[in-house]
Automatic annotation (TrEMBL):
Belongs to the TfdA dioxygenase family. Keywords: Dioxygenase, Iron, Metal-binding, Oxidoreductase. It comes from the Bacteria. InterPro entries: TauD-like_sf (IPR042098), TauD/TfdA-like (IPR003819), TfdA_dioxygenase (IPR051178). This is TauD/TfdA family dioxygenase. Pfam families: TauD (PF02668). GO terms for molecular function: dioxygenase activity. Residues 26-272 form the TauD/TfdA-like domain.
Amino acid sequence: MAIRFENIKEFIGSRVVWDDREDIFTPEAAAAIRAKVEERTVVVFPELNLTDAEQLRITEAMGEKVRLTNKTNVQDNDEDIYQVTLDPRINPQPEYVLGTFFWHMDGITVDMPPPFATLLSCRIAPDKGGETEFASTYAAYEGLPEDEKQALEGLKAVHSVKASLSPIADAIPEKHRDRVLGIGLVKEHPLVWTHESGRKSLVIGTTADHIVGMPIPAGRALLVRLQEWAAQPAYSLRHKWTKGDFVIWDNTGAMHRAIPYDQSTGRMMHRTSIAGTEAVAA
C-alpha cells in the first residue's frame, strides 16, 4: 500500500507515513484510513498541511460529512469547515471552545446519531498549551474487570450541554448564560454502548450529568471514576500540535479535550465531521 501506519501506543493511536502525498487522497487510502480509525481510535498525519478543499476531499471520501457548527462563529471560510478558535473576531462567544478543555464526546446531545469521526487540522499552533488529549473508551471498557463490566450493564446517564459547561458556567456573562447553557437536548444514553460491530465502549465525558435511578452523589462519583479510568496513560494519548498536522479520531469510541492555552496565542484548528451511522445503543 502507498500509505503505511505505525502504532503510537499499545492501545491507542497510529501515525500515517506516505511516499507520495497524493496517495492519501485515493479511494483505497480512504477505506484503509477509516478502518484504521475504527481499529486504533486516533490516526495522526504529521505536517500534512491540508487546504480546506483537501480536508473536505478526505472527509467525503471516508463518509458522509455532517455539520456540527455554532451559529455564533463568524468565520469567513467554507461553512463546512468549522474554525475552532478563541479569536474574538471569529468566535465572539468562546464558551463552547472553553468547554472543550474538559473530557467530552462530540454530538452526544443532538437529535441524530453521534458523528462517527472528527477531523482536525492545525493552522496555528500555540507555543504553550493547546495540545489535544484522546482517551479510548473502547480500550477503557475492555480493560475493566468483569464484575465492573456487569455492574455497568443496563445503567443510563443523562447528558446535557449544561452539564458539560458547568465547570465554566461562572465565567459565562450573565446576560446570555441561560441561553448558552440551554442549547442542545437532554438525552439519556446507556453507559455501555454495544456497537453494531459487537464491540463495546463507554459513553462518558462532561456531558454526562448523573446516572438514572442512582443517588446524585453516587452517580456522579461513578462517572468521574470512569473518566479517570479511561484517561489513564495506557488508554490515552496527548498530541502536541505542529502547524499542518491533521488528526482523525473515532468520536464514537473516544473522549477528547484540549489543554488550556492563552487566547492571545491565536490557536486555530479547522474541523470537519463524518456522520454517524448508528445511535447509541445498549
